[in-house]
């Protein structure tokens, strides 16, 4: 018969400042942590938790306008990944405007299936342009994306764009 075994997580007090911690196991008959010459049922595991930061504040603009999407409103940071390796994969483009990426010589419209990086956001190269044909439009637009680095990806996220009607008379 297999003894009743339980895992006891014991993170140290500095766990919030550390990216690793260990745990040990014990059963009702034998405490593997304090016994002489312990023979643990489980080895020590280190768990790596990269510290991530994420900001998705959305954007406000007037109908027919364009505005930069800066790192003040859209930012993803991972301490072990460079900004040029943090990707936003677009799963749905805006419906009432265009998502534009500035290159050295031109503007490229981004659509579903394309991507941009956090580095490009930090360089103020990502813009939203509300279509002039929708002048007078009041409401919301958005684009959806999956955030990814070399090791993992997020669930689908939405970036909300609020559009105000402006009387230009």
From TrEMBL:
Keyword field contains Repeat: yes
A Pfam family reported for this protein in Swiss-Prot or TrEMBL: Cadherin_3
Record keywords, A-Z: Glycoprotein, Repeat, Signal
Lineage top rank: taxon: Eukaryota
InterPro entries according to UniProt: CSPG_rpt, FRAS1_ECM
PROSITE patterns: CSPG
CSPG repeats: 50-148
Protein name, entry field: Uncharacterized protein
Protein source organism: Ilyodon furcidens (goldbreast splitfin)
Lineage of the organism: Eukaryota, Metazoa, Chordata, Craniata, Vertebrata
């Amino acid at each position: 018969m297999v003894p009743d075994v339980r895992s006891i997580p014991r993170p140290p007090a500095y766990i919030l400042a550390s990216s690793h911690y260990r745990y040990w196991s014990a059963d009702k008959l034998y405490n593997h942590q304090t016994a002489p010459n312990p023979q643990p049922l489980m080895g020590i595991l280190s768990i790596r938790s990269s510290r991530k930061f994420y900001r998705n504040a959305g954007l406000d603009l007037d109908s027919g306008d364009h505005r930069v999407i800066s790192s003040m409103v859209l930012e993803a940071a991972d301490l072990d990944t460079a900004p040029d390796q943090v990707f936003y994969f677009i799963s749905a483009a805006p419906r009432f405007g265009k998502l534009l990426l500035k290159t050295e010589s031109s503007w490229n419209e981004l659509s579903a299936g394309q991507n941009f990086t956090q580095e490009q956001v930090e360089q103020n190269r990502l813009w939203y342009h509300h279509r002039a044909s929708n002048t007078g439009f009041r409401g919301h637009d958005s684009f959806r994306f999956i955030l990814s680095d070399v090791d993992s990806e997020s669930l689908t996220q939405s970036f909300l764009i609020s559009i105000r009607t402006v009387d230009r008379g």
